[in-house]
Design goal:
By secondary structure, the protein is an alpha/beta fold. The protein has eleven helices and 17 strands. Strands 3, 4, 5, 6, 11, 12, 13, 14 and 15 form a nine-stranded mixed beta sheet that branches. Strands 1, 2, 7, 8, 9, 10, 16 and 17 form an eight-stranded mixed beta sheet that branches. The radius of gyration is 21 Å and the shape is globular. About 45% of the residues are buried. The structure holds flavin-adenine dinucleotide. The site of flavin-adenine dinucleotide has 40 residues, from α1, α2, β3, β11 and β15.
């Protein structure tokens, strides 16, 4: 164990080397800040490794329903900021030349128990009013184009998918090129905020930082408010590479207006990844024990939805992620812990929100402020 240099002080310590820590580290170090990333495990072995990486701007809570929950103005701002985050992710990956199999994909949102066909019509109006381009497809159009029977759907544009491991490692590598340091495996045992900086306590000694950012995924750090946040488990299968040259129109991302919902995408080697069956997280043993039952359900649902494809699982896995009642994360200063920031409660759009966190935190740490900081603040009242 090599101890840290005594009195070493950096601009920012980021706790967690998943996709959130990686994108935030790249963004801050590109601005010239001295950044240290610490992870108790190897980098990119948390939720990020399990992610199915559908990179969508559409938030888990439909715009029409979120408007009722938080007011139309706030709901539209949340949706627009999410759109901007996906666009920023695409541009940043391109400009940094990160090779992560990033592919442009539209997305198909099928009617379900949260929004039926009439609900989708209302949702179409809400999204169009907010400036989003969407197309409402009736059951016949969905069957003709996608081979899915008996479901109306909403088609929206310009989303992405990627290999999440390559994406996160790409950002982490670029951060290191800008001068960031990664220490792993190393656990941050505690942080002690002072009047001008924070002391980060580890078994390799203490590190002093102007700011600390918790990007610890579903392992919520002590002192960070949890109100409105919960942990969920989700199960996933990947089929064998499919033989058909085209699986459905545009091979768009597919998900449902249901609770919980099924989510699907096609990989570059033509496997169909299908996840869902989400449940509240109890513990890892119980989550892993449910795997055979969950996979069998996923296979059946996939076969029913897309009868032309071979639904049998070739790989299976599961994972845990945090979510919030608004389907949007908390990002910002931790109340009562000076110089400490946290990002948590990502839901199904975790990677989109990792990019959003990088934009927001870079603005806050650079002293520029961010016009949308109130939407994600831990102190928000909605
Ligand atoms: C199966 C599955 C499918 C998903 N599908 C999608 C999807 O399609 N699209 C999407 O956008 N999102 C999806 N998500 C969500 C998304 O993957 C997560 O939101 C995202 O990966 C979280 O990244 P993170 O960096 O915040 O957390 P993680 O990747 O979990 O990284 C956190 C890191 O913090 C470290 N850490 C924790 N505590 C400490 C400590 N005290 N000291 C040091 N290190 C510490 C951990 O070791 C870990 O490496 C999915 C998640 C799962 C599980």
């Amino acid at each position: 164990v090599v101890p840290f240099k005594v009195r070493q002080k950096v601009d920012a310590v980021i706790v967690g080397a998943g996709i959130s820590g990686a994108i935030v580290a790249e963004s801050l170090s590109a601005c010239g800040l001295r950044v240290v990333v610490i992870d108790r495990r190897a980098p990119v072995t948390g939720s990020t490794l399990a992610s199915t990486a559908l990179l969508q701007y559409e938030i888990d809570i439909p715009l029409s329903l979120l408007s009722k929950q938080v007011g139309r103005n706030r709901a539209e701002r949340l949706w627009r900021r999410s759109r901007m985050a996906v666009d920023a992710l695409r541009q940043r990956v391109r400009s940094l030349d990160i090779r992560c199999d990033m592919t442009a994909r539209d997305s198909l949102y099928l009617e379900g128990d949260v929004l039926d066909a009439d609900g989708l019509e209302v949702e179409t109006g809400a999204r169009r009013r907010a400036g989003f381009e969407v197309q409402l497809l009736d059951k016949q159009a969905v069957q003709n184009r996608f081979g899915i029977r008996g479901r109306a759907a909403l088609l929206s544009y310009d989303n992405l998918c990627a290999n999440p491991r390559k994406l996160a490692l790409g950002f982490l590598n670029r951060a290191c090129k800008h001068g960031a340091l990664v220490h792993s495996p190393l656990t941050v045992e505690s942080v002690e905020p002072g009047s001008t900086d924070v002391t980060v306590v580890t078994e390799r000694g203490d590190l002093r930082a102007k700011s600390v950012i918790f990007a610890t995924g579903y392992e919520l750090p002590k002192g960070v408010p949890r109100k409105g946040h919960s942990l969920n488990s989700t199960w996933v299968l990947a089929t064998k590479p499919q033989r058909l040259s085209s699986l459905w129109d545009g091979e768009c991302l597919i998900w449902e207006a249901s609770e919980p919902y099924l989510y699907l995408r096609v990989t570059t080697d033509r496997r169909v990844i299908c996840g869902g069956e989400d449940e509240d997280f109890v513990n890892e043993e119980l989550r892993d024990a449910l795997m055979p039952d969950k996979v069998s359900r996923l296979e059946k649902k996939l076969a029913k939805l897309l009868p032309r494809i071979d639904p049998r699982a070739d790989y299976t896995w599961c994972g845990t992620f945090g979510s919030a009642t608004t389907g949007t994360p908390s990002i910002g200063r931790v109340p009562g812990m000076p110089h400490c920031y946290a990002v948590l409660g990502y839901g199904g759009n975790g990677i989109t929100f990792s990019m959003l966190a990088a934009q927001l935190l870079t603005n806050l740490l650079q002293g520029r402020g961010d016009a949308d900081a109130d939407l994600y603040a831990f102190s928000r009242k909605f």
